[in-house]
Amino acid sequence: MKSMHEIQNPRARHWVRALSLLGALALVTSASQAANGGTPTFTTLEPGKTRVIAQQIPINLVLVGYEAGAGARDVNTATLLAELPSTYRPIVRDSVYYGVTQPLGLSYSYAYNVRFADNAFENDFFAYLGSIAQDQPLTQFQEMYNDQINKTEVLTSNAWIDAPSVEKWLALNAGSKLGIDPKQYTIFLVNWYGRADFRPHVYTKIGEPDPETGYDFGLLRDSRKLIAWGGTPPNDEETGLGTLARIWFYDLSAGPEAWSGN
Fold first, then answer.
1. Kind of pairing between the strands at 228-230 and 247-251
2. Are strands 202-204 and 53-64 parallel, antiparallel or unpaired?
3. pLDDT tens-digit series, residues 131-164
4. Residue ranges per domain, the chain?
5. How far is 202 from 214, CA to CA, in rounded Å?
6. For residues 164 and 239, is the Cβ–Cβ distance under 8 A?
7. Using CA atoms, how far apart are residues 132 and 162, in angstroms rounded to an integer?
């Protein structure tokens, strides 16, 4: 006998029929397997056991403005890779507060691909940075740097560079200029310092004010000036790239800024 809810609700009737059909199919499948002497097999799940799903993640490390070697401004690839993690296991965060480390059923290993950008890419990239740089006063943290006794030089100028625009440039040019798929996780380590076209600079993300007060922290606060940026989704309301790109850049020649103690 049908319930009153099922009779009065057409959607409920559709669900009952769908579930009945799924149940019938399951019985037929089980019967067929039993008749053939087989048992259900799973490629991922192992009933009654804890299964750890392993995945290898390729990561591109692109060094822009650096050279391979052992000099003061050079990068030794083996030394760099030795500092990077080779695996990662996520854990249940809440359990840590109670002294319990509870790993999730996921395990990642990293396959690093280290690339040194060639001169042509560097010239194009740094020319782009210079083309969108806007003269601005020193930030509070650049002035604090100047107040130090031990410093490399005295900063007398500063420029703002729009961070999402740089991310988009890297996403659009990584493939054609470097042969790197921007859909793969890609980290750009950048050094502009030492070139004739270098300008002291920080990166900005403006135009996203607080919805309640209208205060644009990225525009008005020195503490929101940046030296790294990335990970913008393709459909971001303000600065979406329009296409998937897993790009993050870290410019060690920018700043100083508030967050990394540099």
1. antiparallel
2. unpaired
3. 999 999 999 999 999 999 988 889 999 999 999 9
4. 4-35, 59-85+111-251
5. 23
6. yes
7. 7
